[in-house]
Amino acid sequence: MAGHAAENHGPMAQFEIKRLVPMELFGYDISFTNSALFMVLALVLASGFLIFAMNGRSLVPSRMQSIAESLYEFVAGIVRENLGEEGMRYFPWVFSIFIFILAVNMLGMIPGSFTVTSHIIVTFALALMVWVTVTLIGFARHGVGYLKLFVPDGVPIWLMPLIVPIEIVSYLIRPISLAVRLFANMMAGHTMLKVFASFAVSLPVVAKAFPVLFTAAFTGLEFLVSFLQAFIFTVLTCIYLNDAVNMHH
Amino acid sequence: MITAMTVLVAEALDVGRDVAEALDEHKSGGLPQLHAPDFAPQLFWLAVTFVLLYWIMSKVALPRIGEVIEERRDRIQRDLAAAERLKGETDKALQTYEKALSDARGSASAIARKTRDELGAEVDKERKAVEDQLAKKLADAEASIAATKTKALASVKDIAGDTVVEIVNALTNINVTKDEAVRAIPSGSDK
Lengths: 249, 191
Description:
The complex is a heterodimer.
Chain A: E1 19-21, E2 24-25, E3 28-29, E4 32-33, H1 34-53, H2 63-83, H3 91-108, H4 120-142, H5 160-172, H6 174-202, H7 209-246
Antiparallel strand pairs in A: 1-4, 2-3
Helix pairs in contact in A: 1-3, 2-3, 2-7, 3-7, 4-6, 4-7, 6-7
Chain B: H1 2-24, H2 39-172, H3 178-184
Helix pairs in contact in B: 1-2, 2-3
């Protein structure tokens, strides 16, 4: 634990967890870390922005208000498209997932900051929350009938021994694929950035331009990836929810 | 949902600690993401911040945005409905106006015809009166001319008689009376 936060400027150093305020609760370590700091920042910025931007509540929106409304309509569009109008009861939950991931991803784009979603434990916890919630909704709505999800329509009976296990495995693997997709994208992108940025330091002067330009271009791409991963996570959440709510396969 | 998440987080914290203890034996040094003792604080703060975020979003932020969007949609709907209604009223008013216009045109031509007929009748009457009057005056004039002529002719005979008496006296010394003279003169008015 000691040398953990030692001076280390390798490409992985940006992912290190630093305990800013050590805390403990019932024997658990709940220290306020740099990760926690950025989660709280995301919470404050997202809530603060969405509430502040709507202060005018004008029929003809200001710029800030249109951004807030666009975010709302964007996620509402995803929910409606996948779940239909009745799926709007899950909208606040889906929106929270989207805005949380988007906010921490975007905060992670600030040089020297920390990217919460570059930790598999965080993305896995989010993915597990989605998976458990969806599964609970599925059983609550359809009872044991929810298991029919593993028996697709129109498949010949002799294929069942093959199809059903595949369906079950693909269902069980959902939280893992959801978690790994987000985590790997964020970690890989940030590592790449750091590696190329460090080339700019180590390379001789004549060659410095290349890594600098590449890093600049790649930063733009990373912004896209940050948004896209939040979007993908949200869309997949809605698709899974649709399985649970409507059982369309 | 929140209770489910709390249970989930408690479980995850337990798992995290177990894994952390297991991994700590090996001494970490690899990826910071696999440094198990860091799992518990991340999960704890993730749970805290996400639950708070969910609460703020569902209770405050989203209803506010939803309200405004809803209100705008309603307003546009209302305005469209009002516009539709007004358009209907305009069409009706236009119809009424056109009907009134054609009615007015019809009655105007009726009035014109009636006036023309009346004026024509009056003119005819007046002309007839004037003509009658003229005819009467003409007849009177003719009568008076005839009377005057008769009277003049009578005077002529009288004067002729006197003249005859004088002439006969002067030439022959025969006394003739005026009556004889007048009788001798052929009646002028007989020719």
